[in-house]
């Protein structure tokens, strides 16, 4: 036991330089003592390893038990993510609805033109010249299409189809004054069962957006609604945005 | 690990408890382990480690950090979190390198080399040769055959507790009684080891 205490004292670092030298000389001179020192170090390493394994086992048990516990929070956190995703989606939907509802009359008119006046249905008209004009319009030859529709209108001022298409092409060409003229002529034709003249004129006014156009467009749209004219559904919605 | 990790303990409190309040040390070890256990998952993702390997790297990190904190090797130049993170990354890299050999060797040689470094070169060579002859696994086996009292005395001391603290834990009358008992246990261990090995 004396040697063990002596060895322990050395490794605690309590010895003076002289005592250290004496200790190390004893290792060199006394094989039995050297063996005890070697065992002390080995045993210390073994104990540290025991401690390491014990701690690791303790951590393992803790980790495994918490893993079971964390299964519930994981489900909870999944709900959190789902709730967050729902909020984001709802925000997008509301933003979209709001953006649709909050679009200005000018934006709505612009959108209508993009959606409805890009191409014309060839079955809409009758007669060779009218179909040729529609085909030219659909192939992007707007000036040539307008020329045909104007020719038809000049030949027969009562040709409502020619008037309508002449107005649409003029609108596409951003010739708003001309478009308004044709749509006004169309609107004035009271013999038609379905007349889109007033609605199209309102669109053109909103698109031109000059001073007083908006107010005039609003009156036309109100008239479309009141008289149950073509474009009533859109007119009702658009009036709410003024 | 959320259930306990939510009770976060700040660095200063944890370091003080580990270094000074040895009665609360084990509790702090557990706290430290829980507090940063998310690193296990990070090790799995970042280094493509199996969960068991990431757990080993993290356990080693905590055990080494505890020793460094207790031994004042950790100088608070960074936060505890940063310090652990660096050690953990090194452990993961070591683990990947040593995966084909013995994983436990990451830790195993450390205590032996610490003591060896205290001995001058000439004596060290003699001791080194003798240690290589010792059967490490047999020593461990004998430690576990010592009996619970002796085993506890030796392991507490090896874990850095002094005789006074051990006396408090294990309800010995005095520190001197602990020291005497402990040295006897060490002799007993050597006797058991040499009896079957000698």
Labels describing this entry:
heterodimer; A: 242 residues; mainly alpha; Serine Threonine Protein Phosphatase 5, Tetratricopeptide repeat; 11 helices; 79% helix; rod-shaped; B: 198 residues; Rna Polymerase Sigma Factor, Chain: A; 2 domains; 13 helices; 0% strand; globular
Explain how this protein is built.
The complex is a heterodimer of chains A (242) and B (198). Chain A contains 11 helices and no strands. Chain A has 2 domains: 2-70, no CATH class; 106-239, Tetratricopeptide repeat domain (Serine Threonine Protein Phosphatase 5, Tetratricopeptide repeat, Alpha Horseshoe), CATH 1.25.40. In chain A, α10 packs across α11 (232-239). The relative contact order of chain A is 0.06. Chain A has helices at residues 2-11, 17-29, 31-101, 105-116, 128-138, 142-155, 160-172, 176-188, 197-208, 213-226, 232-239. The longest helix of chain A is centred in the first third of the chain and has 71 residues, at 31-101. With 198 residues, chain B is an all-alpha fold. Chain B has 2 domains: 2-101, Rna Polymerase Sigma Factor, Chain: A, CATH 1.10.1740; 134-197. Chain B is built from 13 helices and no strands. In chain B, α5 crosses α6 (80-98). The longest helix of chain B is centred in the last third of the chain and has 23 residues, at 175-197. Chain B is globular. Chain B starts with a helix and ends with a helix. Residues 1-6 of chain B have low confidence and may be disordered. The chains are: A mainly alpha (242), B mainly alpha (198). At the A-B interface, α1, α2 and α3 of A face α1, α3, α5, α8 and α9 of B.
